[in-house]
Amino acid sequence: MAEIIWKESPLTWTAHVNDTPVCTLKGKDIGGWSASWLDGRVWPAPAHLPKATPQSVRFFANLAEAKAAVEKTVKS
């Protein structure tokens, strides 16, 4: 199982696995956080838009939700 280490800078958190950055969380001016994969992964289409194309960026309402989603994806 991969261990995730979070590194923080102003309004940005980066998830590192084995010292390699895999995802960046950025705070948005309008509120919420965007999660961007850095290693080629994509977020699945949302349940309410099943035909949507998977994207490398996804929006989350809060930091805790974003971190939990990244950790779940990396560990699965």
Automatic annotation (TrEMBL):
Q: What is this protein called?
A: Uncharacterized protein
Q: What is the native source organism of this protein?
A: Hylemonella gracilis ATCC 19624
